[in-house]
Amino acid sequence: MAEKLRAAGYQGPYRLRKQVVEPVFGQIKQARGFRQFLRRGLAAVRHEWSLICTVHNLLKLAAARRKPQPMMVKTA
User: How many CA atoms lie within 13 A of 51 on its CB side?
Assistant: First the structure.
């Protein structure tokens, strides 16, 4: 495995995987405090995960809307 990682270089699939997806899981675990599912069964867990992801995305949208927008300066 170490040889595969060295041969792949910076654009290797393992490096891209870390950059794209995994921060979201870390944010959900750290910021939202989600450590384990509360429901049993695959269907129930899928619904719970969908709810968690929806809440995470809505909170990110709300935070983005709260940021002050730069003022546009009118030129005569």
Answer: 10
The neighbour count for residue 56, using CB atoms within 10 Å, is 16
5/31 same-domain check: yes
Indicate whether this model's pTM tops 0.90: no
Structural domains counted in the chain: 2
CA-closest candidate to residue 53, choices 37, 65, 64, 66: 37
Q: Which two tokens stand for residue 8?
A: 């792949």
H or E element that contains 7: helix 2-8
76 in a structural domain: no
Share of the chain above pLDDT 70, in %: 63
CA–centroid distance for 52 within its chain: 11
